[in-house]
Structures are given as C-alpha cells and as structure tokens.
Amino acid sequence: MNSKYISDKYYSLVNSKKVVNDPGQIEVIQSLDYLYYLIKMPFSFKNFFKKKKILGVYIYGEVGRGKSFLMDVFYQSIIGKNSLRIHQHVFMYQIYNYLNKANSLNIKNPFKYAIDKFIKNISILCVDEFEVLDVADAMILERLYQELYKKGIKVVLTSNTEPNLLYENGLQRNRFIPFINLINNVMIVNKIESGKDYRIVSQNRNDIKNFQEFYFINENMRLLEKLFSFLSNKINVSSLNLEYNNRRFYIDKSANNVAFFHFNELCKENYSNIDYIKLAERFSWLIISSIPKLTAKDRNMAKRFQSLIDILYDEKIGLAVSSEVKPKDIYEAGDGSKEFSRTVSRLYEMTNRSWLNKIRDKRFKIMFDM
Fold first, then answer.
1. How far is residue 344 CA from its own chain's centroid?
2. Is residue 97 in some structural domain?
3. C-beta neighbour count of 127 within 10 angstroms
4. Residue 333 domain-assigned?
5. Longest dimension (CA), the chain
C-alpha cells in the first residue's frame, strides 16, 4: 500500500487533475480515512480505548455525486485477498443461494451459514448501490448484518437514501426498524452534500442525435440496426435460450456477445435481478429499443428497468438504446421516481462515448477506435 490514508490517494488524483476537488466529499473521505486506520492498525493505542466497535461507513447522497468513486478509492487502497467489492443486487443473489443451500441441508442457523460461506477469506466488504425495495430483503437484512458485525467484518455501503428513510412505506416496515438502528448505532453515516452530477456530460445542442452517442430519440431503428450490424462484426445472428435454476431467458437476436431487445421483452415480462445478472454474465453489449414514457401505473416496469441498468452498469456492459423521450422524462412521477433518478444519470453516462473506456469487453472499444 503506497498511501497512508484514503485522503492521500484522493488528493493525489486532485493534484494530477484526474478528479475535481469536491468540498461535498470531504467528510466522507475523513470517515474512510478512519476506517482505513482501524483496518490497518486494529490494535493501536487509540483504538484500544475506543468504546464503540465500528462496523463501517454508510455513504449516501444524490445520484452522480461520487459515492461509488469514493468507495473505489477506498477499495483500491485496501484491495487484496481479504477484500470484496460487490453490487447490492449481486450480494443478495449470492446470499439467497447460500440460504437455500442451508435450508436444503437443514442447517439450524441458515444466516450464520450463509455469511460464513460468503465471507470466507473476506474481512472487508464494499457493497455499492445499497437499497431496500423488496419485503423479502427487508426481513433478513438485520440478521445478515448482525452476523457480519459479530465476525468483525468491516463494511462500506453506498446508497441514495439516508438510513432512516430506507424501505419507507414498505410492507411490515416495523420489522425493518432494527436494521436501521443497527446502521445508525455501529456505522459512521455520512451524506455527500449536493453538487454537480459528474456523470452528466455537457451536450452539444447542434448534435443531430440530440445529446448522446448511443441514445437515439424518435425510435430510430435504422441507427440501432446499423449499430447491431457493426457490433456483430459479421458473425451470424441467431436466437438462443439462457437456462439456469429451472428458468429460461429467450433472446431472439444475438451475435458476438451482443443482444438486441425491445424494451417490453426485458421489462414487461416478470423478470428479476437474477435474470438480469445472468444476462450480464452472458453478453457484453445490449441494444434496447422502444423505451416508452412510463407513468405511475408502470411502476413495476420502471423498477425492472432500474434494476437492469444498475446491473449492466456494475458489470460494465456496453449499451445503446432508442426511446420516445429523453432519459429525464422516462419516469417522472410515481412510486420510486426519486430512486429512478439514478437510472437517468446512468443512462447519460452509459450511452456517452466515454463509456467505451470502462466497458468490460475491450474488443468493442478497439472496434470504435479503428
């Protein structure tokens, strides 16, 4: 490890002009410094007299304010065999797999079993985009994090929502309150103050495509088809079935790790995070046509689309879309519209040409650079 604290790494990036110094992030950086200190020097004199055992740091704030970036700075500073960075959807997917295995084995304490399996060789856990939307998740989170706490695992969580507002108006929320209390009692809770959304790039209004390289307005299927033909790189187009866990995901049009979908095929059907994770594991680029303007009655479709974009973003998947409207107008009002603002921000980022520098499959960047 080269830097003494997370702040050293941060200000090194600032001085090299790779990032902009943001006063709204300073308090979070200081908390990550302290967590870093506890991890590197757990038996120090200062920590010896510390009465309160700390589970970790909970970072929340508006979309695009650098929460994931600061987590990554922390993670890169402590990266090693004993650390793991994971998206919330993937974390819960793996936990449920272990819980199901524990139940099949008639394990007396399935939560302890699941955490023991999950944290094998892990002492530092970074969970990005923490949110609670499902009653099933809400009912088990306190027990899961109590197990992490007992085992001395250090945790960093990023979220758009402050702890006291998590799972607001959710079913049986009174049973979720102990988890909120746990977060407030054993984690350092920091808000990144309001400021610029760094994921939204200034746009040239004279651009015929309006604002993005791979976001097409007015149902421009010709451009999507042309892009699919280019990305498929002359490989035969075919349909296929993804089969897993007694489930099947039908893809009508695919080639060269690229899949082409109509929005309804992905979000009108009753798909879950597990389905979207499997999709991201199989393909490196998705093309999605005909994203409609969603209303309050389309809450389930909006939620699925939000989950899909979160997973594609975390897995660094290439993306191109067509829509009737701009991202900010897709889901303006309805249950979950506040949380949907993250999806809007990510659509701006993922359909901008600069996303090519981040995508998992570097072949596509090379193709565009040719």
1. 13
2. yes
3. 20
4. yes
5. 67
Please tell me whether the overall predicted TM-score, pTM, comes out greater than 0.70 for this model: no
Closest by Cα among 81, 3, 82, 86 to 37: 3
What tokens does 114 get? Answer: 């699941």
pLDDT band at 361; cut points 50, 70, 90: very high
**The CA-based dihedral angle spanning residues 105, 106, 108, 109, taken in that order and rounded to the nearest 10 degrees:** 50
Amino acid residing at 216:
F
Separate counts of helices (H) and strands (E) for the chain:
14, 11
- Enclosing domain of residue 139: 6-192
Number of structural domains (the chain) is 2
Question: Which residues have CB under 8 Å from 16's CB, separation 6+?
Answer: none
Looking at the fold, whether 224 and 140 belong to one and the same domain comes out as: no
Tokens 């899909």 correspond to: 308
Q: Which one, of 290, 282, 284, lies nearest residue 250 by Cα?
A: 282
Q: Do 251 and 239 form a contact (C-beta atoms < 8 A)?
A: yes
Residue (of 312, 266, 243) closest to 89 by Cα position: 312
Helices 88-104 and 135-150: angle between axes, nearest 10 degrees: 80
In DSSP terms, 159 is beta-bridged to: 60
The predicted-structure confidence for 263-299, as pLDDT tens digits, reads as follows 999 999 889 888 999 999 999 999 999 999 999 999 9
Residue 90 falls inside a structural domain: yes
Selection from 327, 368, 369, 328 nearest residue 351 by Cα: 327
